[in-house]
Design the sequence.
């Protein structure tokens, strides 16, 4: 099955502008050059004030201070102990009981 899939996913002929590539080395060289050219070009960034114009409208200075502030140990403890100790483990694999006992 794997051999069949390999044969199905192979490119045997490739037309590039006026040139037809039919050997594997030529096709590989074409793709290599194509992707090297794409990913090695300079990123032309146009600087504008769009971000500076929009962000102050979306987040007030008071909200920004709240968002970047570090939570106190008391706030963290309150949140941890408000969790259901028998909760299903989260993506890290630990449930509420683990955090409440460690």
Sequence:
């Amino acid at each position: 099955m794997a051999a069949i899939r390999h044969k199905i996913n192979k490119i045997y002929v490739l037309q590039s502008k006026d040139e037809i590539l039919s050997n594997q080395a030529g096709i590989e060289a074409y793709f290599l050059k194509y992707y090297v050219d794409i990913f090695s070009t300079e990123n032309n960034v146009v600087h504008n004030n769009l971000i500076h114009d929009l962000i102050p409208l979306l987040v007030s200075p008071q909200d920004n201070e709240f968002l970047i502030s570090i939570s106190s140990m008391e706030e963290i403890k309150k949140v941890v102990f408000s969790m259901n100790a028998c909760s299903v483990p989260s993506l890290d694999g630990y449930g509420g009981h683990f955090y409440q006992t460690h």
In short: The radius of gyration is 28 Å.
